[in-house]
Amino acid sequence: MTFGAVERYRNTKAWDWARRSWVGDFVRAARIGRRNFVKAAKTCPYELWSWVRSENLTLPSARQLAQALAAMRTSSDDSIEGEIAEAPVFVLSTGWRAGSTLLQRILVTDPRLLVWGEPLGEMMMVSRIAEMLSDSLSPRDLDLWYKQDGVPLSSLPTSWIAALSPPANDLRSALRLLFCQWLAEPARRQGFTRWGLKEVRLGATEATLLHWLFPRARFVILSRHPYDCYQSFADSGWEYLYYRHPEVRIDTIAAFARHWNRLALDWSQLPAGFPGFRIKYEDLINGKVDFRRLEAWLGIEIHEERALSTSVGGTARRSRLSWFERLIIGREAAAGMSALGYSK
Fold it and tell me: Are 230 and 316 in contact (CB under 8 A)?
């Protein structure tokens, strides 16, 4: 058939019917299948070799940070006047493509609340502060810090003041002020009375820090099956992501799965009574989340139907991951999947 004949045929009702019927679906599926096969043949050796060579990222645990914060011996929250009234909302998910943006849009249907979306995410400000505070002082320097509180100001010229530092409460207040000036004040200038942030990189360690700074904060913790998370990421066309720029890049299946697994396991480190509300993406899109309970717990009014009425940012095109993608994710995220009740 000549090119001209094909073009004439495309303008007929028969062509239009075939394109809209199962015939068209079959042809499109065959084309996608061929592209996926070619792509898998190219990427499989690279991904398997990267999996063998890659190393796990070592970060401070929530327990480690909690012990370090306790060692600082800050005063009780009641003694810090006017500084604990903030009640931010932190939306934290198990990595990318877990539905955190959808949940963020649902929460901001309350016009009083502004939830910032991964502000300066690649900078990892919260994580770097948490890492800095985790076992950052030796027992000797901690002891010096405690003892200096009793040094009278009049005796400074004749005292050992080489390691003179402000009290721990002032450090805590300064860090709290950093987040208030960075996130709370810009929200208030826009007319919002509540604020928060959504992040895909932060886990229980960072949540421990944020709770130490803001005792009235609320944490909404979102998870999604890692197969679906990675499929949405891979089908989006993004080549890589950064956990922390520029040194920690998520550019392989193993790196993506390990990030998901670390966050999924991380939440088990939080103590009983931690102010967290857990949601699965699968329940979110299937109408199984009790939004009335969530809004009462957060102290806001949620109009979820408004946000759920519009689809934003969908990327998954394939019906199933390739065998080596499932193999790598299934191995690297096995512990996290078991902890959250996801099957392979």
Answer: no
| pTM, rounded to two decimals | 0.82
3 state DSSP class of 211: helix
Q: Which of these, 146, 140, 193, 153, lies nearest to 167 by C-alpha position?
A: 146
Domain interval for residue 183: 54-146+162-340
Residue 223 inside a domain? The answer is yes
Residue 3, pLDDT above cutoff 50: no
List, in sequence order, the alpha helices (H) in 137-289.
139-147, 168-179, 185-189, 204-213, 226-235, 253-266, 281-285
Q: Does 7 map to a domain? A: no
Q: Which of 266, 274, 167, 296 is nearest to 211 (CA)?
A: 274
The pLDDT mean for the chain works out to 86
> Does residue 260 form part of some domain?
yes
Least confident of 8-12, 28-32, 226-230: 28-32
Strands 218-223 and 241-244: unpaired
Q: How many domains does the chain have?
A: 1
Whether 94 contacts 263, CB under 8 Å:
yes
**CATH code, domain carrying 82:** 3.40.50.300
The answer as to whether 243 is a domain residue is yes
Calculate the dihedral angle through the C-alpha atoms of 184, 186, 188, 190, rounding to the nearest 10 degrees.
Answer: -150
- For the chain, strand residue ranges (E) read 89-93, 113-117, 194-199, 218-223, 241-244, 248-250, 276-280
Q: What does each C-alpha distance from 112 to 27, 160, 193, 212 come to in angstroms?
A: 49, 51, 5, 24
Amino acid at 279: I
Query: By C-alpha distance, which of 273, 260, 267, 112 is closest to 194?
Result: 112
